[in-house]
């Protein structure tokens, strides 16, 4: 079975939309598994161990979900792009994740 890792990058105001990505992947499970593929959707809310980190709030996300290791990165936005963080040269966490994914 081939695993396709899907990372969802988004600020906090689109929780329901992030949840929909996982629900769609789950609804496709029968079709994908028939073809030998499993979609594994991950994101900061459910897949990062909560803790303090010397690199600030983004540190645990970078450590637990290195965006470079994902096959697909989905960015979801609505009214916010996130909060600029001094630890990231005033990038938001979402911006930081997307820049790393593009690189």
Number of helices: 5
Helix content: 25-40%
> Would you tell me the overall average pLDDT?
94
Number of strand elements: 3
Strand order of the largest sheet: 2-1-3
Cα gyration radius (Å)? 14 Å
**Distance from first to last alpha carbon:** 28 Å
Largest sheet: 3 strands, parallel
Flag low-confidence runs.
none
Structural class: alpha/beta
| Beta-strand residue percentage | 15-25%
The string of secondary-structure elements, in order, is EHHEHHEH
Give a nutshell description of this structure.
The chain has 5 helices and 3 strands; from the N terminus they run E-H-H-E-H-H-E-H. It is an alpha/beta fold. It is globular and about 45 Å long.
Account of the protein in words:
The protein is of the alpha/beta class and 103 residues long. Helices cover 39% and strands 17% of the residues. It has 5 helices and 3 strands. It has helices spanning 15-27, 29-34, 44-47, 58-64, 93-102; strands at residues 2-9, 37-42, 72-75. The chain has a 3-stranded parallel beta sheet. It is globular. It starts with a strand and ends with a helix.
Kindly list the characteristics that best describe this protein.
single chain; 103 residues; alpha/beta; 17% strand
Topology of this protein?
Blueprint lengths: L1 E8 L5 H13 L1 H6 L2 E6 L1 H4 L10 H7 L7 E4 L17 H10 L1
Parallel strand pairs: 1-2, 1-3
